[in-house]
C-alpha cells in the first residue's frame, strides 16, 4: 500500500474527504484540522491500495490540491489491518499491475538529472569497464554494468516520449549527452597514463578475448537491449526494483564506452568504432522497448495531463 498525506485549504477539506471515502481502495482516513502551517490548512492522511492510487491522486489534483496545498505519497512496507486488507481486495486490478503515474514521473525526473553524483557513478563505471578490458576480466565488466547509472535517464526519455513530457526528454538527453563523453574522456586520460607508466601492455590487451563480446555488435545486441528495456520499465512501473539489477547486468552500455576509450588509446579505431556502435544500439534499444511497454500500460491511463513542469532546473 501507499500512504497519502494531503495539505489542503480549509474550504476544500470536505471535498477531499469525500473523494477519499467514496473510493473502495482507501483505508485509515485521518483528519488533522488546522495542522498545516505553510501553506495553512488541514492535513488529511489515508492509506491507499496501489491500484487505487492513480485515481485518488487524479481526484485530488482535479480539486487543485497540488496547487493550493500539496500531495505526498510514501511506500507502506507493512500494514496490519483488516480495513487495509479490505481496501486492497476492493480496489480494481492487481497491485503488481498498477502504475502510479505521478510517482513514475517524479522518480524518473529525479534520476535523470545531470549532477555530480550521476557523473561520478558513470565515470567510475566507465573506469571499471576499462580495467575489465585491460585485465580481460568479465567479472569486472559485470561490476561496471551494475555501477552504471544510465538506466535512469533512459527510462526518463521513454516516459517523456510516451507522456509527451519534453522537459523529461530534454533533461535526460542532456545527462546522457554530457555524461558519456565526459566519462569516456576521463577514462581515455586514465588509459593514456596507464599505458605511459607501463600499467598495461598493448599486445597483451589485444591478445585477450574474454571481453570481446563488449564490442561485437550483432542482432543479439539489439535483442538483449530490447528485452532489458522492457524488463526495466516493468520493474519501475510495478515497484519491483530488484529486477533492475538484472537489467544493469544484461546490457553493454558502460562497458562499450570504456572499451571505446581503451581502443582509442591503443589506436584500434575499428574496435573503437564498433564499441561506440554497440553503445548506441544498446541505448536506443532500451529506450524503444521501455517506451513500448509504457505505451501499452498507458492505454488504461485517464485522459488528464499528469505532469507539471519539474520544479528544479
TrEMBL record:
UniProt keywords, alphabetically: Membrane, Transmembrane, Transmembrane helix
InterPro entries in UniProt: DUF389
Transmembrane domains' residue ranges: 114-135, 141-162, 174-193, 213-234, 241-264, 276-296
PANTHER family in the record: AT15442P-RELATED (PTHR20992:SF9)
Protein name as annotated: Putative hydrophobic protein (TIGR00271 family)
Species whose genome carries this gene: Saccharothrix australiensis
Amino acid at each position: 500500500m501507499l500512504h497519502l498525506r494531503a495539505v489542503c485549504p480549509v474550504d476544500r477539506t470536505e471535498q477531499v474527504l469525500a473523494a477519499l471515502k467514496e473510493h473502495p481502495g482507501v483505508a485509515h482516513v485521518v483528519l488533522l484540522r488546522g495542522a498545516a502551517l505553510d501553506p495553512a490548512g488541514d492535513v488529511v492522511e489515508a492509506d491507499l491500495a496501489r491500484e487505487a492510487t492513480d485515481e485518488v491522486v487524479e481526484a485530488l489534483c482535479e480539486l487543485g490540491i497540488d496547487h493550493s496545498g500539496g500531495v505526498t505519497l510514501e511506500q507502506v512496507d507493512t500494514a496490519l489491518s483488516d480495513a487495509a486488507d479490505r481496501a486492497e481486495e476492493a480496489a480494481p486490478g492487481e497491485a503488481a499491475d498498477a502504475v502510479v503515474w505521478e510517482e513514475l514521473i517524479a522518480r524518473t525526473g529525479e534520476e535523470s538529472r545531470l549532477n555530480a553524483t550521476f557523473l561520478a557513478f558513470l565515470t567510475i563505471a566507465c573506469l571499471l569497464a576499462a580495467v575489465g578490458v585491460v585485465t580481460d576480466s568479465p567479472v569486472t565488466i559485470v561490476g561496471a554494468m551494475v555501477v552504471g547509472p544510465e538506466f535512469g535517464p533512459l527510462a526518463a526519455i521513454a516516459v517523456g516520449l510516451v507522456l509527451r513530457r519534453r522537459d523529461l526528454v530534454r533533461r535526460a538527453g542532456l545527462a546522457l549527452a554530457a555524461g558519456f563523453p565526459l566519462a569516456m574522456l576521463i577514462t581515455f586520460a586514465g588509459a593514456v597514463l596507464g599505458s605511459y607508466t607501463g600499467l598495461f601492455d598493448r599486445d597483451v590487451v589485444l591478445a585477450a578475448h574474454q571481453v570481446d563480446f563488449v564490442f561485437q555488435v550483432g542482432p543479439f545486441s539489439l535483442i538483449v537491449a530490447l528485452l532489458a528495456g522492457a524488463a526495466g520499465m516493468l520493474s519501475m512501473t510495478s515497484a519491483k526494483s530488484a529486477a533492475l539489477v538484472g537489467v544493469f547486468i544484461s546490457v553493454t552500455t558502460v562497458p562499450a564506452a570504456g572499451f571505446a576509450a581503451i581502443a582509442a588509446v591503443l589506436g584500434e579505431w575499428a574496435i573503437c568504432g564498433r564499441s561506440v556502435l554497440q553503445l548506441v544500439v544498446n541505448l536506443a534499444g532500451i529506450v524503444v522497448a521501455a517506451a513500448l511497454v509504457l505505451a501499452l500500460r498507458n492505454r488504461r491511463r485517464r485522459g488528464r495531463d499528469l505532469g507539471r513542469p519539474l520544479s528544479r532546473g
